[in-house]
Amino acid sequence: MKYLDEFHDPELAASQFEEIERIVTRPWALMEVCGGQTHSIVRNGIDQLLPEQVRLIHGPGCPVCVTPLETIDKALAIAARDDVIFCSFGDMLRVPGSHHDLFQIRSNGGDVRVVYSPLDAVRIAADNPDKQVVFFGIGFETTAPANAMTVVEAKRRGLTNFSMLVSHVLVPPAIAAIASSPDTQVNAYLAAGHVNTVMGTAEYEPLVERFKVPIVVTGFEPLDVLEGIRRALLQLEQGRAEVENAYPRAVKAGGNPAAKAVLGEVFEVCDRAWRGIGVIPASGWRLSEAYRDFDAEHRFEVTDLTVEESPLCRSGEVLQGLIKPNECEQFGITCTPRKPLGATMVSSEGACAAYYQYRRLALQEEVRA
Amino acid sequence: MCLGVPGRIDAIRDEQGTPMASVDFGGIRKDVCLAYLPEAEVGDYTLVHVGFAITRIDEASALETLELIRSIGNLAEELGEEPADLAGDAAAGGGGS
Q1: Are A16 and A226 contacting, i.e. CB atoms less than 8 angstroms apart?
Q2: What angle is formed at CA A269 by the lines to CA A88 and CA A281, rounded to 5 degrees?
Protein backbone atom coordinates (compact mmCIF):
# COMPACT_ATOMS: atom_id res chain seq x y z
CA MET A 1 0.00 0.00 0.00
CA LYS A 2 1.22 3.49 -0.78
CA TYR A 3 3.34 5.10 1.97
CA LEU A 4 3.76 1.74 3.74
CA ASP A 5 5.60 -0.58 1.36
CA GLU A 6 8.25 1.97 0.39
CA PHE A 7 9.21 2.38 4.04
CA HIS A 8 9.70 -1.37 4.49
CA ASP A 9 12.34 -1.80 1.76
CA PRO A 10 14.91 -4.29 3.15
CA GLU A 11 17.74 -3.14 0.85
CA LEU A 12 17.38 0.47 1.94
CA ALA A 13 17.22 -0.73 5.56
CA ALA A 14 20.51 -2.57 5.02
CA SER A 15 22.20 0.62 3.83
CA GLN A 16 20.81 2.48 6.86
CA PHE A 17 22.30 -0.16 9.18
CA GLU A 18 25.64 0.19 7.41
CA GLU A 19 25.55 3.96 7.79
CA ILE A 20 24.73 3.65 11.50
CA GLU A 21 27.63 1.23 11.89
CA ARG A 22 29.88 3.83 10.24
CA ILE A 23 28.71 6.76 12.42
CA VAL A 24 28.95 5.13 15.84
CA THR A 25 32.24 5.34 17.74
CA ARG A 26 31.11 4.78 21.34
CA PRO A 27 28.17 3.52 23.45
CA TRP A 28 24.85 5.37 23.31
CA ALA A 29 21.38 4.70 24.71
CA LEU A 30 18.32 5.94 22.84
CA MET A 31 14.75 5.83 24.12
CA GLU A 32 11.89 5.28 21.71
CA VAL A 33 9.09 6.95 23.60
CA CYS A 34 6.15 5.34 21.83
CA GLY A 35 4.99 1.76 22.37
CA GLY A 36 4.02 1.56 18.70
CA GLN A 37 7.67 2.12 17.84
CA THR A 38 8.70 -0.52 20.41
CA HIS A 39 6.55 -3.05 18.57
CA SER A 40 8.00 -2.04 15.20
CA ILE A 41 11.53 -2.40 16.63
CA VAL A 42 10.97 -5.78 18.28
CA ARG A 43 8.91 -7.23 15.42
CA ASN A 44 11.56 -6.31 12.85
CA GLY A 45 14.51 -7.16 15.10
CA ILE A 46 15.93 -3.65 14.66
CA ASP A 47 17.45 -3.63 18.16
CA GLN A 48 19.27 -6.91 17.41
CA LEU A 49 20.72 -5.65 14.12
CA LEU A 50 22.13 -2.39 15.51
CA PRO A 51 25.80 -2.16 16.51
CA GLU A 52 26.40 -3.48 20.01
CA GLN A 53 27.24 0.02 21.22
CA VAL A 54 23.70 1.25 20.49
CA ARG A 55 21.11 0.32 23.08
CA LEU A 56 17.40 1.01 22.70
CA ILE A 57 15.45 1.64 25.89
CA HIS A 58 11.70 1.18 25.59
CA GLY A 59 9.74 4.18 26.84
CA PRO A 60 6.42 4.71 28.64
CA GLY A 61 4.41 5.62 25.51
CA CYS A 62 1.59 3.19 26.03
CA PRO A 63 -1.55 4.94 27.30
CA VAL A 64 -3.26 1.70 28.23
CA CYS A 65 -0.22 0.74 30.34
CA VAL A 66 0.06 3.99 32.27
CA THR A 67 -3.65 4.54 33.04
CA PRO A 68 -3.65 4.54 36.85
CA LEU A 69 -5.08 1.54 38.67
CA GLU A 70 -7.48 3.81 40.54
CA THR A 71 -8.97 4.99 37.23
CA ILE A 72 -9.29 1.39 36.02
CA ASP A 73 -11.09 0.51 39.25
CA LYS A 74 -13.40 3.52 38.76
CA ALA A 75 -14.12 2.36 35.21
CA LEU A 76 -14.96 -1.11 36.51
CA ALA A 77 -17.30 0.30 39.17
CA ILE A 78 -19.11 2.50 36.63
CA ALA A 79 -19.29 -0.26 34.01
CA ALA A 80 -20.90 -2.63 36.53
CA ARG A 81 -23.93 -0.32 37.01
CA ASP A 82 -27.27 -1.46 35.54
CA ASP A 83 -28.02 1.93 34.00
CA VAL A 84 -24.67 2.23 32.16
CA ILE A 85 -23.40 1.28 28.69
CA PHE A 86 -19.60 1.44 29.02
CA CYS A 87 -17.65 2.05 25.78
CA SER A 88 -13.92 1.58 25.40
CA PHE A 89 -11.09 0.89 22.98
CA GLY A 90 -10.55 -2.87 22.85
CA ASP A 91 -7.12 -2.79 24.50
CA MET A 92 -8.60 -1.75 27.85
CA LEU A 93 -10.85 -4.77 28.34
CA ARG A 94 -8.24 -7.18 29.66
CA VAL A 95 -6.27 -4.63 31.71
CA PRO A 96 -6.28 -5.90 35.28
CA GLY A 97 -7.87 -3.73 37.93
CA SER A 98 -7.38 -4.48 41.61
CA HIS A 99 -9.77 -7.42 41.50
CA HIS A 100 -11.06 -7.96 37.95
CA ASP A 101 -11.20 -6.52 34.42
CA LEU A 102 -13.83 -5.18 31.99
CA PHE A 103 -14.21 -8.61 30.37
CA GLN A 104 -15.32 -10.02 33.71
CA ILE A 105 -17.76 -7.14 34.18
CA ARG A 106 -19.22 -8.03 30.79
CA SER A 107 -19.48 -11.75 31.53
CA ASN A 108 -21.28 -10.84 34.76
CA GLY A 109 -23.95 -9.02 32.75
CA GLY A 110 -22.46 -5.53 32.40
CA ASP A 111 -23.00 -3.75 29.08
CA VAL A 112 -19.39 -3.16 27.96
CA ARG A 113 -18.85 -2.34 24.28
CA VAL A 114 -15.71 -1.99 22.20
CA VAL A 115 -15.70 0.98 19.83
CA TYR A 116 -13.31 1.64 16.95
CA SER A 117 -13.91 5.38 16.89
CA PRO A 118 -14.91 7.47 19.91
CA LEU A 119 -17.72 8.95 17.80
CA ASP A 120 -19.38 5.50 17.87
CA ALA A 121 -19.94 6.06 21.61
CA VAL A 122 -21.83 9.30 20.87
CA ARG A 123 -24.05 7.42 18.40
CA ILE A 124 -24.72 4.75 21.03
CA ALA A 125 -25.75 7.53 23.44
CA ALA A 126 -28.14 9.00 20.87
CA ASP A 127 -29.67 5.55 20.25
CA ASN A 128 -30.08 4.72 23.95
CA PRO A 129 -31.63 7.78 25.64
CA ASP A 130 -32.71 5.75 28.69
CA LYS A 131 -29.13 4.65 29.44
CA GLN A 132 -26.05 6.50 30.62
CA VAL A 133 -23.30 6.02 28.05
CA VAL A 134 -19.75 6.39 29.36
CA PHE A 135 -16.69 6.44 27.11
CA PHE A 136 -13.25 5.60 28.53
CA GLY A 137 -11.20 8.49 27.09
CA ILE A 138 -7.57 7.52 27.28
CA GLY A 139 -4.58 8.24 25.08
CA PHE A 140 -1.75 10.59 24.24
CA GLU A 141 -2.04 13.77 22.18
CA THR A 142 -2.66 11.65 19.04
CA THR A 143 -5.96 10.32 20.37
CA ALA A 144 -7.02 13.44 22.28
CA PRO A 145 -8.57 15.28 19.29
CA ALA A 146 -10.83 12.28 18.54
CA ASN A 147 -11.87 11.99 22.18
CA ALA A 148 -12.39 15.76 22.48
CA MET A 149 -14.74 15.64 19.50
CA THR A 150 -17.07 13.26 21.38
CA VAL A 151 -17.92 15.84 24.03
CA VAL A 152 -18.15 18.61 21.42
CA GLU A 153 -20.61 16.44 19.47
CA ALA A 154 -22.53 15.38 22.59
CA LYS A 155 -22.91 19.03 23.58
CA ARG A 156 -23.94 20.05 20.07
CA ARG A 157 -26.59 17.33 19.96
CA GLY A 158 -27.78 18.15 23.49
CA LEU A 159 -27.09 14.61 24.75
CA THR A 160 -27.38 14.60 28.53
CA ASN A 161 -26.73 10.84 28.83
CA PHE A 162 -23.13 10.91 27.54
CA SER A 163 -19.99 11.33 29.62
CA MET A 164 -16.30 10.51 29.40
CA LEU A 165 -13.95 9.01 31.98
CA VAL A 166 -10.77 10.88 31.13
CA SER A 167 -7.21 9.72 31.63
CA HIS A 168 -5.22 11.63 29.04
CA VAL A 169 -1.43 11.81 29.19
CA LEU A 170 1.12 14.07 27.53
CA VAL A 171 4.52 13.19 26.05
CA PRO A 172 6.74 16.26 26.78
CA PRO A 173 6.29 16.14 30.60
CA ALA A 174 7.08 12.41 30.52
CA ILE A 175 10.33 13.07 28.63
CA ALA A 176 11.14 15.81 31.16
CA ALA A 177 10.49 13.41 34.04
CA ILE A 178 12.75 10.72 32.57
CA ALA A 179 15.47 13.22 31.62
CA SER A 180 15.51 14.78 35.11
CA SER A 181 15.80 11.45 36.89
CA PRO A 182 19.29 11.06 38.39
CA ASP A 183 19.37 7.42 37.22
CA THR A 184 18.55 8.17 33.62
CA GLN A 185 20.73 6.44 31.05
CA VAL A 186 19.04 7.96 28.00
CA ASN A 187 21.27 10.03 25.69
CA ALA A 188 18.64 10.90 23.07
CA TYR A 189 14.90 10.49 22.46
CA LEU A 190 12.93 9.32 19.45
CA ALA A 191 9.70 11.32 19.80
CA ALA A 192 6.40 9.65 18.92
CA GLY A 193 5.70 10.96 15.41
CA HIS A 194 1.91 10.77 15.51
CA VAL A 195 1.80 12.88 18.67
CA ASN A 196 3.67 15.52 16.68
CA THR A 197 1.23 15.37 13.75
CA VAL A 198 -1.22 16.92 16.20
CA MET A 199 1.00 19.06 18.44
CA GLY A 200 3.85 20.03 16.11
CA THR A 201 7.41 20.30 17.38
CA ALA A 202 7.66 23.61 19.31
CA GLU A 203 7.03 21.99 22.73
CA TYR A 204 10.26 20.01 22.37
CA GLU A 205 12.59 23.00 21.97
CA PRO A 206 12.64 23.87 25.71
CA LEU A 207 13.41 20.20 26.55
CA VAL A 208 16.40 20.14 24.23
CA GLU A 209 17.67 23.42 25.74
CA ARG A 210 17.18 22.28 29.30
CA PHE A 211 18.50 18.72 29.12
CA LYS A 212 20.95 19.04 26.18
CA VAL A 213 19.57 15.88 24.57
CA PRO A 214 18.70 15.35 20.90
CA ILE A 215 15.00 14.74 20.24
CA VAL A 216 14.19 13.32 16.82
CA VAL A 217 10.56 13.15 15.68
CA THR A 218 10.30 9.62 14.32
CA GLY A 219 7.77 7.59 12.35
CA PHE A 220 6.73 3.97 12.72
CA GLU A 221 7.73 1.96 9.66
CA PRO A 222 11.14 0.23 9.78
CA LEU A 223 12.90 2.79 7.55
CA ASP A 224 11.34 5.63 9.58
CA VAL A 225 12.59 4.16 12.85
CA LEU A 226 16.06 3.62 11.41
CA GLU A 227 16.15 7.17 10.07
CA GLY A 228 15.24 8.49 13.54
CA ILE A 229 17.98 6.36 15.10
CA ARG A 230 20.55 7.47 12.50
CA ARG A 231 19.82 11.16 13.01
CA ALA A 232 19.89 10.88 16.81
CA LEU A 233 23.25 9.08 16.68
CA LEU A 234 24.68 11.62 14.24
CA GLN A 235 23.71 14.46 16.61
CA LEU A 236 25.26 12.63 19.58
CA GLU A 237 28.50 11.87 17.76
CA GLN A 238 28.75 15.50 16.58
CA GLY A 239 27.95 16.87 20.06
CA ARG A 240 24.71 18.51 18.94
CA ALA A 241 21.35 18.53 20.75
CA GLU A 242 18.50 19.68 18.53
CA VAL A 243 14.89 18.99 17.68
CA GLU A 244 14.90 17.28 14.32
CA ASN A 245 12.00 16.04 12.20
CA ALA A 246 12.70 12.67 10.58
CA TYR A 247 9.00 12.17 9.71
CA PRO A 248 8.22 15.22 7.55
CA ARG A 249 5.63 13.50 5.35
CA ALA A 250 3.27 13.44 8.36
CA VAL A 251 4.60 16.10 10.77
CA LYS A 252 4.57 19.85 10.22
CA ALA A 253 6.24 22.21 12.70
CA GLY A 254 2.88 23.74 13.64
CA GLY A 255 1.06 20.42 13.99
CA ASN A 256 -2.66 20.33 13.22
CA PRO A 257 -4.13 23.79 13.99
CA ALA A 258 -7.79 22.67 13.79
CA ALA A 259 -7.14 19.90 16.32
CA LYS A 260 -5.11 22.13 18.63
CA ALA A 261 -7.93 24.70 18.71
CA VAL A 262 -10.48 22.09 19.86
CA LEU A 263 -8.03 20.60 22.39
CA GLY A 264 -7.50 24.06 23.91
CA GLU A 265 -11.24 24.48 24.34
CA VAL A 266 -12.12 21.01 25.66
CA PHE A 267 -9.17 20.15 27.90
CA GLU A 268 -7.04 21.77 30.58
CA VAL A 269 -3.68 20.61 31.89
CA CYS A 270 -3.60 18.72 35.21
CA ASP A 271 -1.21 16.61 37.26
CA ARG A 272 -1.57 12.95 36.37
CA ALA A 273 -0.56 9.69 38.04
CA TRP A 274 1.09 7.23 35.61
CA ARG A 275 0.66 3.58 36.54
CA GLY A 276 4.00 2.13 37.61
CA ILE A 277 5.71 5.52 37.54
CA GLY A 278 3.85 7.88 39.89
CA VAL A 279 2.52 11.42 39.63
CA ILE A 280 4.13 13.58 36.93
CA PRO A 281 3.28 17.29 37.32
CA ALA A 282 1.23 18.87 34.50
CA SER A 283 1.37 15.64 32.49
CA GLY A 284 -2.32 15.11 31.78
CA TRP A 285 -5.46 16.65 30.38
CA ARG A 286 -8.88 16.75 32.03
CA LEU A 287 -12.10 18.28 30.74
CA SER A 288 -12.18 22.07 31.02
CA GLU A 289 -14.77 23.95 33.07
CA ALA A 290 -16.97 24.42 29.97
CA TYR A 291 -17.24 20.62 29.50
CA ARG A 292 -17.17 19.53 33.16
CA ASP A 293 -20.79 18.28 32.88
CA PHE A 294 -19.51 15.53 30.59
CA ASP A 295 -16.93 14.30 33.10
CA ALA A 296 -17.89 10.80 34.28
CA GLU A 297 -15.97 11.33 37.53
CA HIS A 298 -18.35 14.18 38.37
CA ARG A 299 -21.46 12.35 37.18
CA PHE A 300 -20.82 9.13 39.10
CA GLU A 301 -19.72 9.22 42.71
CA VAL A 302 -17.15 6.45 42.97
CA THR A 303 -15.66 6.23 46.43
CA ASP A 304 -14.49 3.46 48.76
CA LEU A 305 -11.96 2.15 46.27
CA THR A 306 -9.16 0.13 47.80
CA VAL A 307 -6.50 0.01 45.14
CA GLU A 308 -4.33 -3.09 45.17
CA GLU A 309 -1.50 -3.59 42.66
CA SER A 310 -0.08 -7.07 42.01
CA PRO A 311 3.00 -7.45 44.25
CA LEU A 312 4.68 -9.57 41.55
CA CYS A 313 4.30 -7.24 38.57
CA ARG A 314 7.38 -5.18 37.60
CA SER A 315 5.71 -3.17 34.83
CA GLY A 316 6.73 0.08 36.53
CA GLU A 317 10.39 -0.77 35.99
CA VAL A 318 9.65 -1.83 32.40
CA LEU A 319 7.84 1.46 31.71
CA GLN A 320 10.77 3.46 33.03
CA GLY A 321 13.22 1.48 30.92
CA LEU A 322 14.98 0.11 34.03
CA ILE A 323 14.51 -3.54 33.06
CA LYS A 324 13.64 -5.40 29.86
CA PRO A 325 10.38 -7.38 29.98
CA ASN A 326 12.14 -10.76 29.99
CA GLU A 327 14.14 -9.77 33.08
CA CYS A 328 10.92 -10.03 35.12
CA GLU A 329 10.65 -13.42 36.85
CA GLN A 330 6.95 -13.69 35.96
CA PHE A 331 7.41 -13.05 32.22
CA GLY A 332 5.76 -15.79 30.15
CA ILE A 333 5.27 -17.97 33.24
CA THR A 334 2.62 -16.50 35.52
CA CYS A 335 2.14 -13.46 33.28
CA THR A 336 0.89 -13.89 29.70
CA PRO A 337 -1.41 -11.83 27.44
CA ARG A 338 -4.30 -14.17 28.35
CA LYS A 339 -3.63 -13.84 32.08
CA PRO A 340 -1.68 -10.63 32.53
CA LEU A 341 -0.40 -9.32 35.86
CA GLY A 342 0.07 -5.83 34.45
CA ALA A 343 -1.12 -3.68 31.57
CA THR A 344 2.22 -3.82 29.72
CA MET A 345 1.42 -7.48 28.92
CA VAL A 346 -2.03 -6.56 27.55
CA SER A 347 -1.76 -3.59 25.28
CA SER A 348 -0.78 -3.82 21.63
CA GLU A 349 1.76 -1.14 22.58
CA GLY A 350 3.02 -2.71 25.80
CA ALA A 351 6.69 -3.73 25.84
CA CYS A 352 5.95 -7.02 27.66
CA ALA A 353 3.36 -7.93 25.01
CA ALA A 354 5.88 -7.15 22.23
CA TYR A 355 8.52 -9.42 23.81
CA TYR A 356 5.94 -12.14 24.40
CA GLN A 357 4.62 -11.98 20.85
CA TYR A 358 7.93 -11.80 18.97
CA ARG A 359 10.68 -13.01 21.30
CA ARG A 360 9.45 -15.58 23.78
CA LEU A 361 10.60 -18.66 21.86
CA ALA A 362 14.08 -17.23 21.30
CA LEU A 363 14.23 -16.15 24.95
CA GLN A 364 13.29 -19.64 26.15
CA GLU A 365 16.08 -21.11 24.00
CA GLU A 366 18.53 -18.67 25.56
CA VAL A 367 17.49 -19.80 29.03
CA ARG A 368 17.93 -23.46 28.08
CA ALA A 369 21.35 -22.87 26.54
CA MET B 1 -3.18 3.35 20.42
CA CYS B 2 -1.13 5.86 18.46
CA LEU B 3 -1.34 3.72 15.35
CA GLY B 4 -1.95 5.79 12.23
CA VAL B 5 -2.89 4.11 8.97
CA PRO B 6 -2.37 5.81 5.62
CA GLY B 7 -5.25 5.77 3.16
CA ARG B 8 -6.55 7.60 0.09
CA ILE B 9 -9.61 9.85 0.27
CA ASP B 10 -12.15 8.59 -2.30
CA ALA B 11 -15.17 10.75 -1.51
CA ILE B 12 -16.14 13.59 0.83
CA ARG B 13 -19.64 14.32 2.15
CA ASP B 14 -21.35 16.37 4.84
CA GLU B 15 -23.03 14.45 7.65
CA GLN B 16 -25.19 16.71 9.86
CA GLY B 17 -22.63 19.48 9.63
CA THR B 18 -19.59 17.22 10.11
CA PRO B 19 -17.31 16.65 7.10
CA MET B 20 -16.81 12.89 6.53
CA ALA B 21 -14.74 10.98 3.99
CA SER B 22 -14.69 7.51 2.53
CA VAL B 23 -11.06 6.40 2.79
CA ASP B 24 -9.51 3.50 0.89
CA PHE B 25 -6.93 1.50 2.87
CA GLY B 26 -5.52 -0.74 0.14
CA GLY B 27 -8.94 -2.09 -0.80
CA ILE B 28 -10.74 -1.74 2.54
CA ARG B 29 -13.00 1.32 2.75
CA LYS B 30 -13.90 3.07 5.98
CA ASP B 31 -15.75 6.21 7.03
CA VAL B 32 -13.40 8.79 8.46
CA CYS B 33 -14.14 12.10 10.17
CA LEU B 34 -12.51 15.10 8.44
CA ALA B 35 -13.25 17.65 11.18
CA TYR B 36 -9.50 18.13 11.75
CA LEU B 37 -8.56 18.17 8.07
CA PRO B 38 -11.14 20.51 6.55
CA GLU B 39 -8.86 21.39 3.62
CA ALA B 40 -8.55 17.74 2.48
CA GLU B 41 -9.48 16.90 -1.10
CA VAL B 42 -10.44 13.74 -2.94
CA GLY B 43 -7.25 11.96 -3.99
CA ASP B 44 -5.24 13.15 -0.97
CA TYR B 45 -3.47 10.57 1.19
CA THR B 46 -4.19 10.96 4.88
CA LEU B 47 -3.11 9.34 8.13
CA VAL B 48 -6.11 7.97 10.02
CA HIS B 49 -6.24 7.39 13.76
CA VAL B 50 -9.35 5.99 15.56
CA GLY B 51 -11.62 7.15 12.75
CA PHE B 52 -10.17 10.65 12.37
CA ALA B 53 -7.91 12.04 9.66
CA ILE B 54 -5.13 13.73 11.64
CA THR B 55 -2.76 14.85 8.89
CA ARG B 56 -2.31 14.96 5.14
CA ILE B 57 0.59 12.84 3.91
CA ASP B 58 2.89 15.09 1.98
CA GLU B 59 4.09 13.25 -1.11
CA ALA B 60 7.04 15.58 -1.77
CA SER B 61 8.35 15.03 1.77
CA ALA B 62 7.85 11.26 1.50
CA LEU B 63 9.91 11.18 -1.70
CA GLU B 64 12.55 13.44 -0.16
CA THR B 65 12.97 11.11 2.83
CA LEU B 66 13.28 8.06 0.56
CA GLU B 67 15.75 9.92 -1.65
CA LEU B 68 17.80 10.85 1.41
CA ILE B 69 17.88 7.24 2.61
CA ARG B 70 18.90 6.08 -0.88
CA SER B 71 21.66 8.66 -1.04
CA ILE B 72 23.06 7.37 2.28
CA GLY B 73 23.57 3.98 0.64
CA ASN B 74 25.30 5.63 -2.31
CA LEU B 75 27.39 7.81 -0.01
CA ALA B 76 28.71 4.82 1.94
CA GLU B 77 29.58 3.26 -1.39
CA GLU B 78 31.40 6.37 -2.57
CA LEU B 79 33.39 6.56 0.63
CA GLY B 80 34.67 3.15 -0.33
CA GLU B 81 33.97 1.53 3.02
CA GLU B 82 33.66 -2.23 3.06
CA PRO B 83 33.78 -2.28 -0.73
CA ALA B 84 33.53 -6.05 -0.94
CA ASP B 85 30.18 -6.14 0.90
CA LEU B 86 28.70 -3.05 -0.60
CA ALA B 87 29.56 -3.56 -4.22
CA GLY B 88 26.66 -5.88 -4.96
CA ASP B 89 24.04 -5.20 -2.29
CA ALA B 90 24.01 -1.44 -1.90
CA ALA B 91 24.26 -0.77 -5.62
CA ALA B 92 21.16 -2.85 -6.22
CA GLY B 93 19.34 -1.09 -3.36
CA GLY B 94 20.48 2.39 -4.25
CA GLY B 95 20.06 2.43 -7.96
CA GLY B 96 17.52 -0.24 -8.64
CA SER B 97 14.33 1.61 -7.84
Answers
A1: yes
A2: 100
Same domain flag for A182 and A54: yes
- Residue pLDDT, tens place only, A175-200: 999 999 988 999 999 999 999 999 99
A51 and A73 share a domain? no
Task: Answer whether residue A21 is part of any domain.
Answer: no
CATH number of the domain bearing residue B15: 2.30.30.140
User: Any CB–CB contact under 8 A between B33 and chain A?
Assistant: yes
Same domain membership, residue A150 and residue A117: yes
- Among the candidates A227, A245, A263, a domain finishes at A245
Q: What is the domain range of residue A223? A: 29-62+177-245
What residues of chain A, 204 to 263, have a C-beta less than 8 Å from chain B?
220, 223-224, 227, 230, 246-252, 256, 258-259, 262
Domain residue limits at B70 = 60-95
pTM (2 decimals)?
0.91
The answer to whether ipTM exceeds 0.90 is yes
The answer to whether the beta carbons of residues A130 and A99 sit under 8 Å apart is: no
With CB atoms and an 8 Å threshold, state whether A139 touches B2. Answer: yes
Separation of CA B22 from chain center: 18
Residues in Cβ contact with A179 at an 8 Å cutoff, skipping those fewer than 6 apart = A186, A189, A207, A210, A211, A213
Q: Are β-strands A243-245 and A215-218 bridged in parallel, bridged antiparallel, or unpaired?
A: parallel
**Beta-carbon separation of A119 and B59 below 8 A:** no
Residue B15 sits in the same domain as residue B35: yes
- What does the alpha-carbon distance between residue B68 and residue B1 come to, in Å, rounded to a whole number? 29
Whether A146 and B76 lie within 8 Å, measured CB to CB: no
C-alpha distances in angstroms, A39 versus A105, A165, A221?
29, 27, 10
